[in-house]
């Protein structure tokens, strides 16, 4: 059933006896999940979006909220700043890992970026999030698709399992302040030619981390729970405080990206897990709630943002590291001020595009923008962002602010250079008032592996109530190669010279 209001659905899920897959209909791929007492944490990958590696929190495994990002700034090189003709599309953070050491009261995030394994830490479970960069793991190369284990039952040793054919285990030491160094590394399993990505390592009955290891399948190519979304894969397993086990994987749900699904697990007498399947031997759409709790989370369905806080909410990520001198939050009444940060004709080269994940299956994102301080040649508006993008916004020419829809903004798949900066597909009225509302409505119902082009529709409003569609709908790509799904975004760039600005007064996202 479709919820009428986003917050109502969050409340009803919290008190429900069952949960429904996908547990989050948003692009949160390469997940790593673990528990500290009654709290579950979920880390995922973000490529060249900044901040990176979001941390989600849950008390029941089914309802989640964003609480932090492990990588506040992409500290992997200047190409992550989208400046000086450099770009890092599809590079950056992919399958990485997050764990907590109770002995040290320290969270560790680590992930392989451009051949090195970077580390960020946060000290203090109950302290306000404050991540610190710890360089790279000394003596280590790339921990490809890493899975970390902190053995706090023993003396707090840190192990990492990684690889995609040759699976290795590395042992790391912490010098006391969070700097990690590799002290041992060996191959523990070799799959031959078969790819076995996304290693995770758990200490369940105290076997040696060095093996020997035997392979069996937990699930393999079982159907469901959504059509046209591939098979649930990668992810991890986690237990509840009362000893129930769950496997969380993700589906290739393009055009929306990769979205998590959850299922209970059972253990055989000889110590092997299997996933509880539904009546059709597939991954279930619904299962009993893993945990009964009165502790609620904000949920991830609806968003109403007026940019009134001291910092951006955790739902936001910039396209590459932003230019901090060109954006601010207005502490006097709210609003996100975006000064133009680049002179370019190419949105993919323009710094400071701010993005938000799309909630599925169908939703709309609406930005209310004050455009009165745009300068001649500036372009600003709401973008449906990916490597094949489109937008609705203002093209300012002289004193005239025309509403336009631009489509066909494209990157070359695999190279991620710009092949097209887009064409004006429709022109609406000129705006004389200071504010305009831009809306993108996107259907991200999975269509992976099909030729179905899900549609996104652009509209604008001059009063915030009546919206007028403009231009052709955009047919979204289902390709996986950009890895990240479509996002709602807001942008402002100059084609002539810097100096103009817009103020984003609000953003709302709701299911439709
Ligand atoms: C988990 O709960 C136990 C029992 O209440 C407590 O002693 C321990 O400190 C908690 N662990 C963490 C990491 O908070
Ligand atoms: C939650 O409470 C319901 C109703 O009392 C019960 O049937 C169910 O088994 C409980 N679930 C868990 C995970 O404890």
From TrEMBL:
<dbReference type="GO" id="GO:0005975">
    <property type="term" value="P:carbohydrate metabolic process"/>
</dbReference>
<keyword id="KW-0326">Glycosidase</keyword>
<dbReference type="InterPro" id="IPR006710">
    <property type="entry name" value="Glyco_hydro_43"/>
</dbReference>
<dbReference type="InterPro" id="IPR023296">
    <property type="entry name" value="Glyco_hydro_beta-prop_sf"/>
</dbReference>
<keyword id="KW-0378">Hydrolase</keyword>
<feature type="domain" description="Beta-xylosidase C-terminal Concanavalin A-like">
    <location>
        <begin position="305"/>
        <end position="509"/>
    </location>
</feature>
<protein>
    <submittedName>
        <fullName>Glycosyl hydrolase</fullName>
    </submittedName>
</protein>
<dbReference type="InterPro" id="IPR041542">
    <property type="entry name" value="GH43_C2"/>
</dbReference>
<dbReference type="Pfam" id="PF04616">
    <property type="entry name" value="Glyco_hydro_43"/>
</dbReference>
<dbReference type="GO" id="GO:0004553">
    <property type="term" value="F:hydrolase activity, hydrolyzing O-glycosyl compounds"/>
</dbReference>
<dbReference type="Pfam" id="PF17851">
    <property type="entry name" value="GH43_C2"/>
</dbReference>
<comment type="similarity">
    <text>Belongs to the glycosyl hydrolase 43 family.</text>
</comment>
<dbReference type="InterPro" id="IPR051795">
    <property type="entry name" value="Glycosyl_Hydrlase_43"/>
</dbReference>
<feature type="signal peptide">
    <location>
        <begin position="1"/>
        <end position="16"/>
    </location>
</feature>
<keyword id="KW-0732">Signal</keyword>
<dbReference type="InterPro" id="IPR013320">
    <property type="entry name" value="ConA-like_dom_sf"/>
</dbReference>
């Amino acid at each position: 059933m479709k919820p009428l209001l986003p917050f109502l659905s969050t409340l009803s899920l919290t008190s429900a006896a069952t949960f429904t897959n996908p547990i989050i209909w948003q692009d949160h791929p390469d997940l790593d999940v673990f528990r500290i007492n009654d709290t579950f944490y979920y880390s995922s990958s973000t490529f060249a979006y900044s901040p990176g590696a979001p941390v989600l929190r849950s008390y029941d495994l089914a309802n989640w909220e964003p609480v932090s990002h492990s990588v506040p700034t992409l500290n992997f090189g200047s190409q992550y700043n989208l400046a000086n003709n450099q770009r890092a599309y599809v590079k950056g953070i992919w399958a990485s890992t997050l764990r907590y050491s109770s002995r040290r009261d320290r969270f560790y995030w680590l992930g392989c970026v451009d051949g090195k394994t970077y580390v960020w830490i946060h000290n203090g479970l109950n302290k306000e999030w404050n991540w610190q960069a710890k360089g790279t793991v000394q003596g280590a190369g790339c921990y490809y698709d890493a899975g970390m284990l902190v053995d706090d039952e023993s003396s707090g040793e840190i192990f990492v399992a990684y690889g995609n054919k040759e699976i290795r285990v590395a042992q790391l030491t912490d010098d006391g302040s969070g700097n990690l160094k590799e002290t041992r590394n060996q191959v523990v399993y070799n799959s031959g030619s078969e790819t076995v990505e996304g290693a995770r390592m758990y200490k369940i009955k105290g076997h040696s981390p060095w093996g020997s290891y035997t392979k069996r399948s937990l699930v393999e190519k079982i159907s469901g729970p959504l059509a046209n979304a591939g098979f649930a894969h990668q992810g991890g397993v986690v237990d509840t405080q009362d000893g129930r086990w769950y496997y969380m994987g993700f589906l290739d749900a393009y055009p929306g990206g990769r979205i998590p699904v959850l299922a209970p697990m059972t253990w055989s007498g000889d110590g092997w897990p299997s996933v509880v399947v539904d009546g059709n031997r597939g991954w279930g759409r619904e299962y009993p709630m893993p945990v009964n709790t009165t502790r609620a989370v904000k949920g991830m369905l609806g968003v109403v943002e007026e940019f009134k806080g001291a910092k951006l909410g955790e739902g936001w990520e910039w396209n590459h590291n932003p230019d901090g001198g060109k954006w601010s939050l207005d502490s006097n009444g709210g609003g996100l001020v975006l000064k133009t940060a680049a002179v370019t004709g190419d949105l993919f080269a323009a710094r400071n595009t701010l993005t938000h994940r799309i909630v599925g299956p169908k939703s709309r994102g609406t930005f209310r923008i004050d455009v009165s301080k745009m300068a001649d040649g500036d372009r600003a508006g709401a973008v449906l962002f990916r490597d094949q993008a489109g937008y609705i916004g203002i093209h300012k020419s002289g004193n005239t602010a025309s509403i336009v829809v631009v489509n066909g903004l494209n990157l070359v798949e695999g190279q991620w250079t710009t092949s097209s900066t887009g064409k004006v597909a429709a022109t609406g009225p000129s705006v004389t008032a200071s504010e305009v509302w831009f809306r993108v409505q996107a259907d991200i119902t999975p269509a992976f592996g099909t030729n179905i082009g899900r549609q996104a529709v652009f509209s604008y409003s001059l009063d915030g109530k009546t919206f007028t569609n403009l231009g052709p709908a955009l047919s979204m790509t289902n390709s996986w190669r950009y890895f990240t799904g479509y996002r709602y975004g807001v942008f402002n760039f100059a084609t002539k010279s810097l100096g103009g600005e817009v103020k984003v007064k609000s953003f709302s996202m709701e299911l439709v």
